[in-house]
Amino acid sequence: MTNTLISAGTVALMLATGAQAQGNGQRGASFIASWDMSQTGYVSLDDMQTHRGDMFDMFDHDGNGYLAADELAQMAETVTAQGELRLERQAENRAERQGEGRRGQGQNANPTGAIIHSAMSVEFNDTNGDGRISREEFLTATERLFAALDRNGDGRVDLSDF
Ligand SMILES: [Ca+2]
Ligand SMILES: [Ca+2]
Predict the structure, then answer these.
(1) Which domain holds residue 132?
(2) Domains in the chain: how many in total?
(3) What's the rounded Cα separation, in Å, for the pair 60 and 127?
(4) Does the keyword Iron apply (predicted)?
(5) Ligand 1: distance of its center to the CA of 8 in Å?
(6) According to the model, what pLDDT value does residue 97 have?
């Protein structure tokens, strides 16, 4: 009986340790938690389209189906401030051992926060160069964003891509 209790406790401890390793600080973990809309344990292109589509609708304040540069900038600022990218950026900064604000690719294999942030710029999304972003442009650009994050090209963004 005592042995059973001890081993049950040991298992619980191991599970807790495992959960912690997945969560705080591990590259990619917070990104996957935020973007895995279908709760499959990895981020698919569909997940990313859903999430980016929601973001588009949220910042298309007048609902005309286009985002202007200032609305996109507001999106980037808000999403960063809300912490969705913050944890990922922190993990990256730790990895790079440098201060905030740098967007370079550096030696970082997959600087997710920086990539996602730059994917909210006009330049990244404005395929036809008219200075405003249609919902279609935004979702088409999402395919490029996904391809940039899916480093091993297996159609899923999971921890193995970081
Ligand atoms: Ca455009
Ligand atoms: Ca992958």
Answers:
(1) 2-161
(2) 1
(3) 18
(4) no
(5) 58
(6) 63
